Amino acid sequence: MNIVRVTASSDVLRGLHDIDGLLMAGSVKEAGGGAWTASGYATDGAIAVVRDRGADVDILLDAQTRMAQLNRVAAQARETEGSAPETGA
Amino acid sequence: MPPPTTPTKPADIFAALSTLSISFPANCELITLPNKSAEPPGVDITCVRLHDDGTPPKDGFSVLVMGGIHAREMAPPDALLRLAQDLLDSFKNVTDITFGPLTAQVNQPSPAPPLAITYPSYTIPRDVVRMIIKNIDLYIFPCVNPDGRLFDILHPGFAGAGWRKNRRPNPDNPAPGAVGVDLNRNFDIAWDFARYYDMPSYRTKFTRPNDPASAVDTIETFNGFTDPARTVTVAGGATGGSFTLNFNGAATAPIAFGVPAATVQTRLRALATIGGSNVNVTGPDGGPYAVTFTGARAHPVPMLTADFALLTGGAGSNPHIEIRHAGPKTEPETLNVEWLIDTRKIRFFLDVHQFGRGILVPWGLEDNGTDQAMTFLQGSTWDWKRDGLQEADVLPPRTNYNEYMPNNIPYYLGDKLTEIANSMQNAIVLAAGADPKAAPGADPKLDHSTYKVVSSARSDAARGVGPLSGASDDYAFSRQFIDTSRVPMYSLTVETGEDEENGFHPDYTAPNNHYQKIEREIYAAVIAYATAAVRFCKWCLIATAAYGSRAHPDVEFLRALRDRELRSTRYGSRVVAILEPVYYSFSPAVARFLVPRRRCRLLVRAVIVRPVVVTLQALAAACKPVRPRRLAVGLLATAIVVLTLLPVAAVAWVLSGVV
Q: Which of B80, B194, B258, B260 has its CA 20 to 30 A from that of B283?
């Protein structure tokens, strides 16, 4: 999923929750002119639907770059898995 | 020690805490929490208490800072572990905690490249560390949810945004996402969400138009498993239509209004997540229905929710379903936090989350109000009646419900919470080297380091999320209303980091350095919070009660005399450390006595406080040029003993006879 910033009126934001592939997270901030900005995670398909509903979508981090970072962290963690004692286990 | 280059695994966090307790035996107590984590076989969970040399836990002067309750929020556990290490190093070696200059990036809307911002060096003076460790017990609990954190690290991008819950098994539902409970909806504070609120009212504002009507409490507030018995009541003047029941990710076929219990039982048994004869339903036609899970489901099971949008009723009716669950069956990780809060008499509680750059002020249950009749404690009176709405959205003839937030002498809970939150906000900005008064856009350090102070109940209202129950900060805050000996108690939540810093999973490496920036912010916030705890916990209660305001200049003078003069030297700090336990052993009782008695307050003000302040002001002025400084402080300390403690103790003694 991409990390996105969605800007729209509160009514539009409230109507986005049924979109598959969109997860709103973080807190909401006033964007001026009656608009609000919410952060979230969205697939490419979900971004298209969100835009169709009248919201502006900015992509802050694309899914590929994000997953590359997470996979690097996971790979390093797996390398050391078992080398550190599981306290109490 | 340099910051980590990847998120630290839970086992390594616990190993590091153990090492701290061995390396700093006089100042670090390792605490093994009473419950192992939920995923079999379970791991031991630990935290530390940082304290003055060899001292036992101090009742009433305890601060708990915790992180990692939501598994995917990577930065807080690492930052809190390092903070514990740095505080102990600083205290033992009498050194400042220093951060060198830092260049970190924030993501900008595509296709713009990341924006690099350079922050100057940042120092936490050794005297501040000393003041904190000397005066309070600082509990640091970096990793509340180890199973979830490890799962999130090893399964990147699970469910898109990462893993949030613990890893409690759910043998009745094979879906991968059905494992686990959201621990921060699981605390024993208004735990049964759909019972706490009037859901039809709540949903007028917070329903998601295209979701099932039950989605608010099913998805947002899945707060755990509970004992197998519950009662389902059709209420609100319903006369027809139908409803569905939702259990463990599955919804029944429509259940018509007024049907016999056997029909409800058939509908529930048809669910794949229940099956066979694993549930019995009894009761009269139309309910209330007693629902009991049995057989293969005779164990703690998820909560039952209802979609009642298709129920109908006459004019003015409010048809809905009320479900009474047996009671909280809280998760082991949640119980660990509750245990720490309650057995160590925590007075200041800070839950460090990620992300959103916000400092959230209680209540999260509702807007704050001053009507003492409206409290979470009045369950039987207000069950299924609290609206969850802001006053403007409540339609007559309903009465708007607000959660009780006292804001009067001597503790001023509401004002002080905001004051503490503002001090944290300011500390973060200053740590970034930003100009707090710069115009928006003029200083990127300010623009990307500003945390907003918001009401917890309304932080996400604009995107359709209303007040929520079962959260850690509300649980901690609520303790003072259950046990009045624990007044005052303060709690806050801080959401560190931001979407532009990779959301839940900040990059720990250059050139992004998201983690390094967030770490500084967490240090600044926690130090500001702990400093507030030291200072606000210990103002002159009697003077405050006598004047009816802690903002009175005489009260401010007494506090400044203690914090700026006496604590400016090691000798003065020792004097304060000796005097404070004596003073605070009786002053809360005296303050409580004075508050409702106007004449007594006037008397104490005129006969004791004012003369003492005038004398100390004169003495302080006379001592300014006295050298060595230690001598001046000694004179002041002696004067305080003679002028303040003795007469006040005498008054306390007299009043104790009166009371």
A: B194
**Does residue A9 sit within a domain?**
yes
> CA of A21: which chain B residue's CA is closest?
B160
Tokens for A19?
């979109």
Per the listing, tokens 């076929």 go with: B253
A87 found inside a domain: no
**How far is it, in rounded angstroms, from Cα B571 to Cα B59?**
24
Cβ contact B221:B244 at 8 Å: no
pLDDT in tens, B469-495: 889 999 999 999 998 888 789 999 999
The number of C-beta contacts closer than 8 angstroms across A and B is 145
Q: What angle do CA B2, B107, B425 make, to 5 degrees?
A: 65
By the 8 A CB rule, do B547 and B609 touch?
Answer: yes
The yes/no answer to whether this complex scores an ipTM above 0.95 is no
**How many structural domains comprise chain A?**
1
CA atoms of B155 and A75, how far apart (whole Å): 10
Domain membership of residue A50 as a residue range: 2-80
Please report whether residue A86 resides in a domain. Answer: no
Count of all residues that appear for chain A in the document: 89
Least-confidence region, from B94-103, B328-337, B409-418, B556-565? B556-565
pTM: 0.84
CB contact (8 A) between residue B157 and residue A28 = no
Name B119's bridge partners.
B102
User: Domain of A17: which CATH number?
Assistant: 3.30.70
Which residue of B lies nearest to A81 if distances are taken between CA atoms?
A: B9
B chain contacts of residue A38, beta-carbon cutoff 8 Å: 460, 462-463
Backbone angles phi, psi at A7, to 5 degrees: -120, 125
